[in-house]
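User: Let's play a game. I give you a shape written as tokens, and you guess the letters that built it. Ready? Here's round one.
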């Protein structure tokens, strides 16, 4: 397998005292570059990903660099790759995976939705790039399904084929001037139909987020709309005896963006928000774990302070496999849609 010879760069002691500054200087001498990710990949080395756009956009004119840096001598840096953006238009890069063999970067287009992945495969012993692989990211695009298999690692198995529901018009819940709310995901519990509302928020249209059920006796809807959900559409729903779990997202002119999941306590009506950037499309339970189908792949939440995330990766010889991405802290700040 071909390996590109490494580029060794050493700096003076002044720069070597600041590991990040040593890397950033390679991409931009005007102090506009930023570190996207730093991960330890061996006792001696970090892999560092940096971008030379001050606003965080990766484009044909913005360079992204992947470097190995000595932990005991930060001034000693090996350049693995420097590359311009995947798209002709700007996209937001995010380091999804960083290991001792590869870095995978997702690139979300300006109008949202899952974008392409760029994978840099390297040999840390030779300190050299082995191959670069670009591939589509979402299971829907790949026409595959991730099946949960508890007790296994990784805990998802890749199945060929994917059943997508036929597109149908969503029932209208409320229609008024500048307002169009539709019924999104539903679940029948003990003969009662629960549902979440969804609406488009842009170009003069809006709505009020909420969820509820149709009262079997009166045939009228009972709606819950706590402040944590009012600005969001519901994308997934799981009703349990003690709580209602909701996937939420923004639907707007500049694309859709995930807002995480909410837990609504049916006894106290208290809402707990769990952060997750990708849109949740389905919520199910396996024992003490919530299994989330997402636009990115899949995720697991067991009540801890992180959500484990998984996606469909492509190897250097074109095979598909399920790998684990960087976890999502459940208390991560809520970012504007344009920054997700």
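Assistant: Ready! My guess for every position:
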């Amino acid at each position: 397998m071909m390996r590109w010879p490494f580029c060794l760069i050493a700096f003076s002691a002044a720069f070597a005292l600041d590991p990040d500054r040593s890397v950033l200087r390679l991409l931009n001498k005007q102090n506009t570059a930023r570190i996207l990710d730093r991960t330890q990949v061996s006792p001696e080395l970090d892999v560092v990903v940096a971008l030379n756009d001050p606003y965080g956009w990766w484009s044909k004119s913005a360079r992204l660099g992947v470097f190995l840096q000595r932990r005991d001598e930060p001034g000693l840096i090996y350049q693995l790759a420097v590359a311009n953006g995947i798209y002709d238009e700007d996209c937001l890069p995010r380091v999804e995976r960083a290991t001792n063999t590869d870095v995978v970067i997702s690139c979300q287009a300006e109008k949202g939705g899952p974008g392409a992945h760029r994978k840099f495969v390297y040999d840390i012993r030779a300190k050299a790039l082995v191959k670069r692989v670009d591939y589509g990211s979402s299971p829907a695009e790949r026409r595959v399904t991730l099946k949960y298999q508890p007790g296994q690692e990784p805990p998802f198995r890749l199945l060929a084929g994917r059943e997508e529901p036929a597109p149908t018009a969503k029932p209208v819940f409320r229609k008024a001037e500048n307002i169009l709310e539709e019924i999104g995901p539903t679940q029948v519990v003990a003969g009662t139909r629960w549902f979440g509302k969804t609406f488009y928020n842009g170009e003069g249209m809006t709505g009020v987020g909420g969820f509820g059920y149709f009262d079997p006796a009166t045939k009228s809807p009972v709606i819950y709309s706590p402040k944590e959900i009012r600005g969001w559409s519901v994308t997934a729903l799981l009703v349990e005896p003690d709580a209602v779990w909701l996937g939420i997202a923004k639907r707007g002119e500049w694309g859709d963006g995930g807002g995480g999941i909410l837990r609504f306590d049916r006894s106290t009506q208290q809402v707990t928000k769990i952060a997750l950037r990708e849109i949740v499309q389905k919520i199910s339970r396996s024992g003490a774990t919530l299994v989330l189908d997402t636009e990115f792949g899949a995720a697991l939440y067991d009540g801890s302070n992180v959500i484990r995330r998984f996606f469909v990766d492509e190897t250097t010889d074109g095979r598909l496999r399920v790998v684990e991405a960087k976890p999502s802290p459940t208390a991560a700040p809520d970012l504007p849609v344009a920054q997700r």
